[in-house]
Amino acid sequence: MKDECAKGVVAGVFIARNGAPSPHGFVTVPADVLQLDHSGIPGDLHAGLTRRSGPREPWLPRGLRLRNDRQLSALCPLELTEIAGQLDLPALPPEWLGGNLLIEGLAGFSRIAPGSRLAFGGDWRGKGRFDGRAILRVEAYNMPCRRAGRVVAAATGRKGLEFAFVKAAAALRGLVLSVDLAGPIAPGDAVVLVPPVVPKGG
């Protein structure tokens, strides 16, 4: 692998737990470290090897058991700042959007291609053998929805933001990920973006 992989850093880690102070179950709270296993973050509301089909799969009956490709949500500080600016807010905390990871330093964060990997920890620079602690697979862009908009509206006391958020967050809502290599992730960890392998045309 070339030593040209994009590099970032973990700026924060968060977890959504039952009984959290917010009435919105997916809202997260800061943590010192995420101890990942192959179900995601143990104790987090989105943890599990499988999940139920729902509105994101309109071609499927509701409630079917699918592989859980939405174990973690990752956000970018610059993109949150851009959304906040469009909504005339001083800031947009990642907790309001259910973020598990806040990652800075990777340009075009919400446009990172599905199939890419994010490798965390160690001194690895994308060359040689990985010496870090955890690897997550980028599954998809996380489409903005009114559910998150309702949290923003409630937190700010501005009802109109329920719908305005969906528009402002278009192409800036971050990524959903699954666990490839289980291990701990903590603030300050290096993040290396490993692009997907695409076969060359003949």
Give your account of this protein's structure.
The chain is of the alpha+beta class. The protein has a single domain (7-194), classed as PK beta-barrel domain-like (M1 Pyruvate Kinase, Domain 3). It is 14% helix and 26% strand. The protein has 3 helices and 12 strands. The strands form 3 sheets. A 7-stranded mixed beta barrel has the order 1-7-6-10-9-8-12. It has a two-stranded antiparallel ribbon with strand order 3-11. It has a two-stranded antiparallel sheet with strand order 4-5. α2 crosses α3. The longest helix is centred in the C-terminal third of the chain and has 11 residues, at 146-156. The mean pLDDT is 92.
